[in-house]
Amino acid sequence: MSDVPILLEMRSITKEFPGVKALSDVNLVVRAGEIHAICGENGAGKSTLMKVLSGVYPYGSYDGQIVYQGAEARYSDIRASENAGIVIIHQELALIPGMSIAENIFLGNEPRKRGAIDWKAANRMALDLMARVGLEEDPDTLVKDIGVGKQQLVEIAKAFAKDVKLLILDEPTAALNEADSRHLLDLLRGFRSRGITSIMISHKLNEIEAIADQITILRDGRTVETLDVKADGVDEDRIVRGMVGRELSSRFPDHTPKIGDVFFEVRNWNVRHPISAERQVCKNESFVVRRGEIVGFAGLMGAGRTELAMSVFGRSYGVYESGTIIKDGKEIVLKSVADAIDNGLAYVSEDRKALGLNLLDDIKTSTVAAKLAKISHHGVLNEVEEYQAAEAYRKELRTKAPTVDESVSKLSGGNQQKVVLAKWMFTDPDLLILDEPTRGIDVGAKYEIYGIIQRLADQGKGVIVISSELPELIGLCDRIYTVFEGAITGEIARADADPETLMKQMTSTKKLATR
Amino acid sequence: MSRIKDLQKNLFGGTTSNARQFGMIFTLVAIVLIFQIWTDGLTLRSDNLIALFQQNSYILILAIGMLMVIVAGHIDLSVGSVAAFTGILVAKSMTEWDLPWPAAIVFGLAIGAVIGAWQGFWVAYIGVPAFIVTLAGMLLFRGGNQFIGNAQSIPVPEGFREIGSGFLPEFGPNTGYNNATLLLGLAAAVAVVWRELQARKTRRAMDADPAPMWISILRMAVMVGAIAFAALRFASGRVGTSFPISGIILVALVIAYSFYTRNTAGGRHIYAVGGNSRAAELSGVKLRRVNFLVMMNMSVLAALAGMIFVARSQASGPQDGNGWELDAIAAVFIGGAAVAGGIGTISGSIVGGLVMAVLNNGLQLQGVGTDKVQIIKGLVLLLAVALDVYNKSQGRFSIIGSLMRPFRREDSTPPASPPDAEREPAKAAVSG
């Protein structure tokens, strides 16, 4: 590819924050019309590098040189880089939910006629842009009424409205289901054929392998290498090796399950949607969990896995209709989260920041939050016991933080997840339900989380793992249920689990094709 | 006296708004000193200190409840009206229905509880924003006060006036001071020393080195000195005056509510709800109950504040409690609470309230008119919060907080962390 002109070159970029060198001597060469992936673990410097490029960190606040389209670029802010055709689409979408698609696309960039916004032209242009990204919706539809996948497309259309030359996508598929992810990747391929250059940051190595032309790997703020996917015959293992700096012989710790008897059972579980009562989100679902067993729940996004888990966990979702929960041979009725906790259930939610943690808290407050009674005597909290409990979990789970007085908002995703796990381990549960326990967590931390899950199972607890990543379920679980549209459609033993079988069960009717 | 205990709490509290509160204490001390000089020593004279406490105790009592409301993520605009409504009913109960005054106080608190349950019901169980519910309550109960009292003042009997304008009794040998106040000061000094020693013990139990002994001694000396100064001032006023009863009620409430918010599960739940209500709910916190109780508690305290005010002014009138909600809310925000909820302390709010009170008092002593006093108070509120917002956006804690960093480090010596050797080197590369 060396004959293709270079679009962007970042030369020995160094960026320091007080006390931390976030980037040192990073080099990045992006050629026109390619898809360039940037890989690295959390904290490797990917986002910082993109912030330098887009002017979030203005010229002068970093060392090194950016050459874009053959000239040195000195961006003072995001507007400057956007005017040059560099647009970043962040992981957290910057759309306004209560505005229409067209309004969002032209926000801050509205077509005007005599000072007033020309909505006719805006809608016409919006339709044109939406066609380019393959989004079939009425431009007047509110953004909050379309799915995450389509919202992502609105963001991209917004980028096109600014005449983009270099599109940067930060974890574009993190929140998307398989079908939407595939659509997005196809779209990127389409852009490539039309000569638009993309930079993509992603943790999903299979996607990178499938789509990228070049891969630059960062580790600890330095460039490790740049790989040519075709010429170097790059595969996932090769990328992981570059990212971690060592062979990761297995992505899952070795584990011999010690499975006991069935101790937890849900029978004929029916739940209705909290707002539209005619929608049934759990349709007569039944499942069992054995002691020491890791049970997976596979399903596409929106299949109703989270809804099932949360409704079992003290009816924290939806309107309960019918169904029984049997634990240790006795029927239990869990009408509130407090009931569920008292009966030995724990639920680690899929959205750490929104549902799992109070980001104002420090580690020790978070650790004991779900069972304050355990550190209370006659209703008075004991600070020393709180500290000791939090410290014990910090050591056991290897949470990387100087002390348990550290605010959880300052921790990385993997370490935040460890705090959430500690919080639920502290409640002494018999059954842990883990909803997407490794979302947004890098490879090394994932391995540690898997180890924790296996240890919990070995202690005789039952563990339910809900995940959208099939390799994760296959590698970790002793048994997997598949869920489709609010119903359990299959039960697959570890020996028989492979992606094709699971996928077939997860999509058991034709309806899915239109999703 | 409470401010000294608060100073101490602020020094050792474990919340993130610490630095801000720290700054507020220094601001308070600075304002007191400035006015002390400007008014030729009038500010710290016994009679003025006593008047300052009597005039502001009800606002500070409101600030206690308001802090909890704001931490939980709500607001209460109705407190002034609730106070007035309770005041008129209590006054009427004594003058027209001949209720003995102790029973009238219980009656007043019950009115507060009923009103609080009414407002809490709408906020917690129906989900109407507290802003709307209490805006409605503000109109409702102001109107109620004037409807019941025919927009007239109703006087209250002698015994009842004690809670607003009474003082500690005189007894014992003639020392030239009020003995009860001296004893109270002594108790406070002992409590301060005991707390400091207790804090050292706790830190040792957390595997952390406590601050060097001389720092603890210095700290205790400063506190005890301040307590002694205050006790002597309050005890040496005109014969018959001493530490006011309303001040004692306030101090007792501050101690009780500080303990509740810091050291009990119920208190933690309020912070959890304000910090992230969904996460709190999924951790087993009963969201509705917390919201209900917080709103209800506020109205009970508003009823108490209303009664103290009526007792002090010897009659309940149609304009009682006008604008109190704003004073209480200002005290809470100046004291470091976050508008979005989840952050703030009782002691901070009290300090915030005292800053406003001293400012008010000092300017009035200098003959500055209420028009200008209001302008100054408005600017102080805006600047105090703006400074904090600005510093947060700059990634700094706060200017005053950073000045205090040497102190803070002393206070937050990190517990001995495990040697890195026990972590796998490979894992150490997995950073965040």
Please tell me about this protein's structure:
With 515 residues, chain A is an alpha/beta fold. Chain A has 3 domains: 239 residues, Rossmann fold, CATH 3.40.50.300; 182 residues, Rossmann fold, CATH 3.40.50; 67 residues, no CATH class. Helix content of chain A is 32%, strand content 27%. In chain A, strands 6-9-10-3-11-12 form a 6-stranded mixed sheet, sandwiched between helices. Chain A has a 6-stranded mixed sheet with strand order 18-21-22-15-23-24, sandwiched between helices. In chain A, helix 4 crosses helix 5. Chain A starts with 5 loop residues before the first strand and ends in a 9-residue tail after the last helix. The C terminus of chain A is likely disordered. Chain B is 72% helix and 1% strand. Chain B is globular and about 60 Å long. The longest helix of chain B has 27 residues. Chain B contains 19 helices and 2 strands. Chain B has a two-stranded antiparallel ribbon with strand order 1-2. Chain B has one domain: ABC transporter involved in vitamin B12 uptake, BtuC, CATH 1.10.3470. Chain B is mainly alpha-helical and 432 residues long. Chains A and B meet through helix 11, helix 12, strand 20, helix 14 and helix 15 of A and helix 11 and helix 12 of B.
